[in-house]
Write a structure and sequence with these properties.
Shape: elongated
Oligomer: single chain
Helix content: over 70%
Number of helices: 18
Strand content: under 5%
Distance between the termini: 93 Å
Number of strands: 0
Order of helices and strands: HHHHHHHHHHHHHHHHHH
Radius of gyration: 44 Å
Length: about 450
């Protein structure tokens, strides 16, 4: 409280403003006139139990009484709050009157003109749609107005579509409803998920929930459209949509899930969705190409993606043969692809298998040189260079032997003794031999340089 004189003067002035005498004031407080006189002269303070009664009689707040001054800001806030409540009440009343008069006029007109209720129901639901945007927000609880408005608008819009569909005798309601739900979810889904009080375990995966909900709504829309058009393409479209959405948004969704090997999970998920798409498309088209497409896809993806995923595979601790595992898997997949394609046609064992094994000797030789030779890395690189030159020299000769074994004679068989003539660059056979010789010479020189560096490093 302020000092006694200020406090007493404030009570006295407030009592006089209200037209009360000391006696009347004292009677309402059930105290004596002399007690009120002491308060107003600053000789004493009233008992603390009387503060609330004094505030009620003098029509002031406790803050004003304790500070011995009028709280103009508080009074202004209270006045604005009362004005706002009065304005809100008048706004609701006006809304009730407008919607009521509209419905009453349409009800009477529809009965008077057509002697039945027909288009009145469209007006009724249209008014409900308008009320969801103008009246429902002021009726909803504080903090939930956005959700109530959005929910009421969605329900009223779907009801309006249903009434219009029945009124026109159409069958398009479910297509329109699914489209509306998908579109509204796409735009307002993040807002709804932020406003909802989700359990603690779901609060950190709101993006995943949003993507999952929109995916389900999109699949629902595709199903409804397929049924409406009498088509049979739903499963193809659904598989394609799942694969595409997973390819684009899969990393965002997996990032919020408690997984240890997210990249591996993403790759496996997309691979399964792609194989599912292959299977459905094969069945839809009546083809038999699924196994072939699946094997070649596994081969391509393994070559491109598997090296980067080796660190996330559940391999034994201290496993140091990841390159060997990768090359082994790719080699087996290549042979399986060729076997699936060639066995029914009769050229796998005689042609494809020998050529594939001959081609695989190059990467397997490189792997052996670069990974498993018990020397330093310079000597390993030297061995890999010499091996590349040796393979490049022997590979055409091996192809000739395979073709000869299959009864195919070459007009210009390959000779291990290359007809090199650097003075002749016009004859095609000599030109090829010259180019081969230059390549072999380059690989040999590179291998020799690496060998010299490796021997020097080894001596040190």
């Amino acid at each position: 409280m302020e000092n006694r004189q200020t406090f007493g003067a404030f009570i006295c002035q407030r009592r006089k403003d209200l037209g009360l005498t000391q006696k009347e004031f004292a009677q309402q407080l059930y105290v004596t006139d002399s007690a009120v006189s002491k308060w107003e002269r600053g000789l004493a303070y009233p008992d603390i139990t009387l503060l609330q009664s004094i505030c009620d009689i003098l029509q002031i707040s406790e803050k004003e009484l304790l500070s011995a001054s009028e709280d103009t800001e508080g009074r202004r806030a209270e006045q604005l709050a009362r004005q706002y409540l009065r304005l809100l009440r008048n706004y609701r009343l006006i809304q009730y009157i407008l919607y009521g008069l509209t419905l009453a006029a349409c009800f009477i007109t529809n009965l008077a003109v057509q002697h039945t209720l027909s288009w009145f129901w469209i007006v009724l639901v249209g008014c409900a749609l308008g009320a969801s945007l103008t009246l429902l927000p002021v009726l909803a609880p504080e903090g939930l107005r956005g959700l109530w408005t959005l929910g009421g608008f969605t329900a009223a819009l779907l009801l309006l579509l249903a009434v219009c569909c029945v009124y026109t005798g159409g069958t398009w309601f479910w297509v329109a409803a699914a489209s509306i739900l998908f579109g509204l979810g796409l735009v307002f889904g993040p807002y709804v998920l932020r406003r909802l009080s989700l359990p603690e375990s779901l609060q950190h995966i709101r993006l995943t929930l949003y993507l999952g909900a929109e995916t389900c709504l999109l699949l629902l829309l595709l199903a409804v459209c397929c049924i409406y058009t009498g088509g049979t393409w739903f499963w193809v479209a659904a598989a394609a949509v799942l694969f595409g959405l997973g390819l684009v948004f899969g990393p965002l969704a997996l990032r919020q899930l408690p997984l240890q090997r997210k990249a591996l999970a993403y790759t496996v998920m997309e691979l399964l969705l792609l194989l599912l798409l292959y299977g459905i498309c094969c069945l839809y088209s009546g083809g038999t190409w699924f196994v072939s497409a699946a094997l070649w896809t596994l081969l391509g993806l393994g070559g491109a993606v598997l090296p980067g995923l080796m660190g996330q595979l559940p391999l034994p601790a201290g496993f140091r043969h990841k390159a060997l595992l990768w090359l082994g898997v790719e080699s087996v997949l290549l042979l399986l692809c060729l076997a699936w394609e060639g066995l029914p046609r009769g050229w796998f064992l005689s042609t494809a298998l020998p050529i594939a094994l001959l081609c695989l000797t190059l990467p397997w030789g490189w792997l052996g040189c670069l990974r498993y030779l018990p020397v330093n890395r310079w000597l390993r690189a030297s061995a890999a260079s010499f091996w590349a030159g040796l393979w490049l020299w022997l590979f055409p000769w091996g192809l000739d032997r395979i073709f000869l074994w299959n009864g195919r004679l070459s007009s210009q068989p390959y000779s291990l003794l290359l007809p090199v003539n650097f003075l002749n660059w016009t004859d095609l056979r000599v030109l090829n031999a010259n180019i081969m010789a230059l390549v072999l010479l380059g690989l040999g020189l590179l291998g020799a340089v690496l060998l010299a560096i490796g021997l020097r490093k080894a001596r040190k």
